[in-house]
Structure prediction request, 374 residues.
Amino acid sequence: MNAPDRLHSKLEFIDLKAQYAALRDEIAQRMQRVLDHGQFIMGPEVRELELALEAHTGAKHCVTVSSGTEALLISMMALGLKPGDEVVTTPFTFAATAETIVLLGAKPVWVDIEPDTCNIDAAQVAAAITPRTKAIMPVSLYGQVADMDEINAVAAKHGLPVIEDAAQSFGARYKGRRSNNLSTLGCTSFFPSKPLGCYGDGGAIFTSDDALAQAAREIRVHGQSARYTHTRVGVGGRMDTLQCAVVLAKLGRLDWELERRRAIGARYHELLAGLPLQTLAVRPDRDCVWGQYTVRVPRREQVQAALATAGIPTAVHYPRPLHRQPAYEHFGDPDACPNALAAAGEVMSLPMSADLRPADQDRVVAALAAALAA
Ligand SMILES: Cc1ncc(COP(=O)(O)O)c(C=O)c1O
Prediction:
């Protein structure tokens, strides 16, 4: 496409096509190898990927599973979560975070977010702990880890495990360490649009606890400790060999992509400075891989409509916090968490991917500036 055409075309919200073009041969070879050996379930690529991701995150164990949702569910099953237990978490997240708690008969206990990062406010976590609390589950929203040291300290005081919902933050760094390797368990998603994605559903659990890793490995195969020996209740939660092959094919480009995401996020921050909107804060001791590049804007619906007219897709992550969702509003006070309520009315995500071109990013910013000035 030549430059003038590009100016008027619709931008991709997440440009997976450019990534595929760059990795086409590697992906084809990797997938072909699986088609040739035919071990579609628990083939050699599964362990190969787990070893590579253990090395990348620094966690002792990686257990691949069928999705990020399943990673959360299996993690909490491995911890022995039971009906009546409570899990302290944020309402400003994707439904899977709370869904998995509720599926096990437990109760999500909401803690409000920080308005400038939209991550759980670690200073409010201690007050949410009761004798029934069995875990704390912060979410590394938009690709930035929450105040994990503070959360781990509160957890240690009460003898509680911490599960990082790292579905949006694979590769993010926090005080020299990687997301997914910062607490008892880390759970990520390989949904295609995530910082590390496959071509379907996939996910992984990370832990350095041998017993939890063993439990997770058994739970993902129907609780089997040996073939047809069902030691515990489990699920069908394996990640397909073909999907593992896709992720393996992407690993050679991963660090470059993570750097690009950080740089594109930083460039958005610079270009948007001075406009009447709020960019999100990135704390100095960590980085953000921008699973979504999200800002807070006034008059969001009008701004989104103006951007859509200019061919710029946007999204809202998330329009209604979970403590206001019909399925979850009976868990606690729907009027609690004022920061989450305010953020839900203002957040808007802009096109973001490692392959976003500077000219296209300029176009997004120019259209946004015009929409805000209208
Ligand atoms: C914060 C969060 N948690 C959990 C999930 C669930 O991941 P998956 O879609 O792979 O099941 C997602 C994915 O959208 C997410 O954004």
User: Anything to note?
Assistant: The CA atoms of residues 238 and 301 lie 40 Å apart. Residues 67-69, 93-94, 96-97, 139, 165, 167-168, 189, 191, 201, 203 surround pyridoxal-5'-phosphate (CB under 6 Å). The longest strand covers residues 61-65.
